[in-house]
Amino acid sequence: MPFPTFLTAPPTLCMLASLATCALVLGLTPPTSSLRPAAFPFMLTYVYLGAFTSSADAFSHPLYANLTGGSLMGMVLKYVDLALLSAWSAESRGPTRRHGGLEPVREKDVKAESGARGRLEKVSWALTLIFNSRLVDTAWEVRHVPQFSKEPGWVPSRVRFVLSRTAIALVCFVLLDATRFLAGPPEQNAVLFAPERVAFFSRLRDVSMEEVVVRYVSAVMFGVVTFLLFQGVHCGVGAIMVGLGVSEVKTWRPCFGRVIESWSLRRFWG
Prior knowledge:
The protein is mainly alpha-helical.
């Protein structure tokens, strides 16, 4: 049974509403505020509204629809972690509970301006925290986050960072759109990826060279597309956040390290 049209909303709008709700609650409410659990149903509502919207009309690539839908659910999980379990505080600039797995910050208040400017500063801090999943430049930074350069502590200028990350994001998204032309017609894909071809080793005698090539190219393209998607989003969002003055450059270290340094499984996965 189709859902009524008034129960749907553009997924991009739902994503922005989810981000705004998370940032406002984190930045403007204390850890013990009842508004934090009260806002959780709204986060779930954004997922519900975005899930029943036709993504084919809203995005130029199916991958972008998947990214938006996954990001909506990811924002819910991030809200649970930051606002409810760890209970991050804009005043203390850190978690105040152990439930999220991090050591709580000691009681200390960060001096912030009062009035509208002070509230804007707190919301900016919350936005940076939401996108700073690796907790770069904090006491809880994860290990082995790639550096900007071989020279320890080197950070590019704001202008250089914005220009370079914008260029990388544009290249990534152009290449992602180009991958649509590599896909064959639906009729051909239905034959190449038919259910009876799922098994491989049990029917080696019947496997053609064409099928071997298709499997190999599909596996390689999956990695390439995933890399382009993550790199493009990371660079694009980083350029926007730094360009608008919301985040500092040092919190947007590279998404991936150098390929020549991934010479073992442990180093490959970080």
